[in-house]
């Protein structure tokens, strides 16, 4: 997007939150969002918390940005849920939980945007989709409202299906716990 000239609509909620911070363009918005610390918000449904709590995950940050462009009727931006093979190599900061568990990887859900056909990751200032793109197992377009319960349920079902199809003897709860340890380590590394 050539977006140094795009002014956010002042009457809309998410646009207004950015305007109060002096952020008026797409480029300014993605830089601001990417610089926010990584962390879960107190309510997955309320995207405004990305700004008021000053943090977000890949899901909340990208859902916020997608809702922002939707507010402003900007086309050709999609919110993507990708499932990828999470490893220490492609997701630095997760610690050695996967290795210690004996898994070669765990399917992880990661949200990002597709802007005019190109994948974009604004999770952090140095985030790059290139780190995981060769390990993507599945991609689907979702709505910002789906980053709450729907995304979690989809991810859990994907892991359960993977566990069964791969003949993994560990139970779902054990796999999910290793994944949660990885996310906690990741949160602490940002």
Q: What's the gist of this structure?
A:
The protein is α+β, with helices and mostly antiparallel strands and 190 residues long.
How would you describe what is shown here?
- This protein is an alpha+beta fold and 190 residues long.
- The chain has two domains: 13-71, no CATH class; 77-189, no CATH class.
- It contains seven helices and four strands, in the order ααααβαβββαα.
- The two termini are 27 Å apart.
Keywords, separated by commas or semicolons:
single chain; about 190 residues; alpha+beta; 7 helices
Main pleated-sheet profile: 4 strands, antiparallel
Question: In one word, what is the shape?
Answer: elongated
H/E series: HHHHEHEEEHH
Radius of gyration: 17 Å
Strand content: 15-25%
**Portion in helices:** 40-55%
Number of domains: 2
The residue-averaged pLDDT reads 91
Q: Unreliable stretches, pLDDT < 50, 5 or more residues?
A: none
Strands ordered across the widest β-sheet: 3-2-1-4
For the record, give the distance between the C-alpha atoms at the N and C termini, rounded to a whole number: 27 Å
Number of strands: 4
State the helix count: 7
- Structural classification: alpha+beta
Task: Indicate the topology.
Blueprint lengths: L12 H8 L5 H10 L13 H4 L5 H14 L5 E10 L10 H5 L4 E10 L2 E3 L15 E7 L6 H17 L6 H18 L1
């Amino acid at each position: 997007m050539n977006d140094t000239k795009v002014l956010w609509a002042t009457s809309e909620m998410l646009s207004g939150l950015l305007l109060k911070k002096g952020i008026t363009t797409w480029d300014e918005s993605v830089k601001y969002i990417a610089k926010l610390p990584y962390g879960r918000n107190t309510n997955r449904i309320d995207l405004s918390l990305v700004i008021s709590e000053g943090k977000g995950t890949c899901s909340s940050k990208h859902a916020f940005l997608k809702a922002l462009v939707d507010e402003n009727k900007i086309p050709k931006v999609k919110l993507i849920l990708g499932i990828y093979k999470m490893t220490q190599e492609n997701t630095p900061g997760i610690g050695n939980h996967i290795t210690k568990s004996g898994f070669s990887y765990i399917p992880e859900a990661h949200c990002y945007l597709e802007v005019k056909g190109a994948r974009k990751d604004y999770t952090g200032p140095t985030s790059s989709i290139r780190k995981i793109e060769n390990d993507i197992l599945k991609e689907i377009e979702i709505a910002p409202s789906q980053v709450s319960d729907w995304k979690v349920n989809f991810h859990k079902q994907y892991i359960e299906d993977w566990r069964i199809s791969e003949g993994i003897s560990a139970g779902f709860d054990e796999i999910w716990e290793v994944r949660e340890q990885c996310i906690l380590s990741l949160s602490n590394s940002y």
